[in-house]
Amino acid sequence: MSSKTKIELDSWNRKEHFLFYKQMEEPFYGLTTRIDCTKAYDKAKQIGVSFFIYYLHQTLTAINTCEPFRLRIIEHEPWLFEQINASATIMREDQTFGFSLIEFHPELSEFNCKALQEINRVQNTIGLFTREFPNENLIHFSSIPWVDFSGLSHARGFSYHDSCPKISFGKMIEEKGRKTMALSIHVHHGLVDGVHIGQFLDTLQQLFDS
Q: 43: which residues sit within 8 A by CB, 6+ positions away?
């Protein structure tokens, strides 16, 4: 279990922003952009890691370095988690999928082992929910490698209180020797603003280029 710290609302410079957006029926907003994955794809192939696991690890690395993305709302109050993991959709041979729980580890080799174990577990189960999700320190992560989308929406039950960021990657496109993918990100506006999305994307692109 990742440790968490309660945000002292009265001394938080985002108090008014938080209270304003958390009362809304739809506090989430999102955008779609493109990310250059030329070097990231080559690196994954070079070290023998699946590209999906590689860019999931880089995404979680960026998430965990950007503090606003580690904030969650629990019983109507903001908390800061020490570590964020991923619940990624995992496809099965019968074209159904299940929700996974892939824990973050800064070392790619360790993360790869854990991710492969969880992917194998989900692929050998049936149904959507195949395990418990006891904590809110997650991002909801998906890959849509069949579609080069320019926009994306998510199914949402407004009666369910959710504050987890949702990140989706699209089909990889190669043009003039460069590989890019669409990237969709949806966040709770009471916790994350546009400037924070920009910081996350800058960090992620730096990781993809390293």
A: 54
